[in-house]
C-alpha cells in the first residue's frame, strides 16, 4: 500500500487568504529556557492551510464541521487533472476529460498543479470552477470536492459586485463539502481511498486536515 499526504505543512507566516491573519506559533514552555517540557501555542484562522469547509461557512444555520460523522471523511476518491491556467474556468467536461468519472458518494480531487505555487504571490491568481460544477456535483451526490487552489471561486481581484460565493453556496448548500489548499506530489493513480478527518472544532465553520490518500 502507498500513502501520500495532500496537505501543506504548517509554518508561521505561511500564505493564506490575504484578508485573514496567518499562522502564529510560540512556546509557552521550552526546554531551551530550562522548562522540563516543550509546549507550543498556535494561532490560526479556521481556513488556513489544507482544510475542509462546512456549510456553516456560508449559511447562518449550516451544519458545523464537528457535526459530521467520521465516515464522511473516509472513502473512495477520484483524481482529475484538467488542463488549466490563470483565467481558466474549469467545467464539468474539463473534469471528466482529466480523470475517471466519479460515482455517487465519491470525493472528487482536482489537481490543477497550482499547489506547487503555494507561498508565491502567483498562487493567488488561480483558475476557478464553473458554477455548473456545483449543480453537477449536487445532482451526482458527491461527498466532497477538493482542489489545490485557495478557493474554487474566482480570484479576489477578478470579482465584481455580483460576486456572492456562488460555488460555496451551491456546493455546501447541497452538502458537498469543500477541501481547499491541497497539494499533489507526483501521483499517477486516479482512483484512491481518502482519509481526511478534520479537526472537530466545536461549532467550526471549517476544520484543518491532514488529507491522506492511499492505494
TrEMBL record:
Record Gene3D superfamilies: Putative cyclase
A single BP term in Gene Ontology: L-tryptophan catabolic process to kynurenine
GO molecular function per UniProt: arylformamidase activity
Organism (species): Rhodococcus jostii
Protein name as catalogued: Kynurenine formamidase
Pfam families the record matches: Cyclase
Highest taxon above the source species: Bacteria
Amino acid at each position: 500500500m502507498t500513502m501520500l499526504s495532500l496537505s501543506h505543512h504548517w509554518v508561521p507566516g505561511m500564505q493564506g487568504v490575504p484578508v485573514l491573519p496567518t499562522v502564529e506559533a510560540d512556546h509557552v514552555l521550552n526546554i531551551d529556557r530550562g522548562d522540563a517540557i516543550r509546549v507550543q501555542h498556535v494561532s490560526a484562522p479556521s481556513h488556513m492551510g489544507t482544510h475542509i469547509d462546512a456549510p456553516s461557512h456560508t449559511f447562518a444555520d449550516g451544519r458545523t464541521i464537528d457535526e459530521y460523522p467520521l465516515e464522511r471523511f473516509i472513502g473512495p476518491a477520484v483524481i482529475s487533472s484538467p488542463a488549466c491556467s490563470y483565467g481558466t474556468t474549469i467545467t464539468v467536461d474539463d473534469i471528466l476529460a482529466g480523470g475517471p468519472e466519479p460515482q455517487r458518494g465519491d470525493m472528487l480531487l482536482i489537481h490543477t498543479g497550482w499547489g506547487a505555487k503555494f507561498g508565491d504571490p502567483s498562487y493567488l491568481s488561480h483558475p476557478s470552477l464553473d458554477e455548473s460544477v456545483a449543480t453537477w456535483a449536487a445532482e451526482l451526490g458527491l461527498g466532497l470536492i477538493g482542489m489545490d487552489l485557495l478557493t474554487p471561486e474566482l480570484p479576489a481581484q477578478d470579482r465584481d459586485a455580483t460576486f456572492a460565493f456562488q460555488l460555496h453556496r451551491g456546493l455546501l448548500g447541497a452538502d458537498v463539502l469543500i477541501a481547499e489548499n491541497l497539494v499533489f506530489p507526483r501521483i499517477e493513480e486516479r482512483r484512491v481511498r481518502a482519509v481526511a478527518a478534520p479537526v472537530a472544532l466545536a461549532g467550526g465553520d471549517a476544520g484543518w486536515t491532514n488529507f491522506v490518500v492511499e492505494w
